[in-house]
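WARN  no MSA supplied for this record, continuing single-sequence
INFO  ligand: glutathione
INFO  echoing inputs
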Amino acid sequence: MLKVHHLSNSRSQRVLWLVEELGVAYELVKHMRDPVTVRSPPSLFKIHPLGKGPTIEHDGKALTESGAILDYITRRVAGGKLSIPESSPEFADYCFWLHYAEGSAMGPVVFDLLNGMTGNGCGDALRGFFMNELQNSFAYISDVLSKREFLLESGFSAADINMTWVLELAEPLGHIETRPILAAYLKRMQSRPAYKRAMEKGGEQDLQMFRPKAALPLT
Ligand SMILES: N[C@@H](CCC(=O)N[C@@H](CS)C(=O)NCC(=O)O)C(=O)O
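INFO  complex generated
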């Protein structure tokens, strides 16, 4: 059976949400972040040498990396549900959004989080660079979502699940309240019954722990 390793307050919430949307059978294994360092506990490194949330186990293999896991589960475990087949005209859009979320969109958000945690440890010049990236990226996502409810025209997909956690992490950093289209999208995603079930099963998510120690300008 599919085993989902969930790290508290982490991206692995995505995988829990996905399996709840799909209604596939799975076993949930919870791992708690170290309360001081907020890093993964040794139990996750026993599953995969990278010790990351999310990690899954299926058919004798351990797999890590959100995008790879979402792709694997939708195709291999769920017969393509919530993904887009190669034959569809939307396949290219699906590949883009699924990987853009954790690739280019997540980068500046994580930099800003680490910058906040270290009291502007990146310094103004570097921060200026990644804030510019964040602005362009979020403006693009907002523009697309101003025209439709989901990232793809055909409707909800695993790409929305990957993107939602990017925006959830950006929220305590102050990057959502100024962007009403992203705020509304986040609310729509969070109101899905499967999202709520995933939260109940994984344990309430508190990303406020990542709020910066001191307020920094948002641009
Ligand atoms: N790009 C990877 C990032 C994985 C990642 O950094 N996960 C975080 C949780 S949000 C983690 O495991 N942090 C604990 C640690 O690195 O010790 C993915 O999407 O799976």
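The chain has two domains: 2-83, 91-197.
INFO  checksum written, moving to next record
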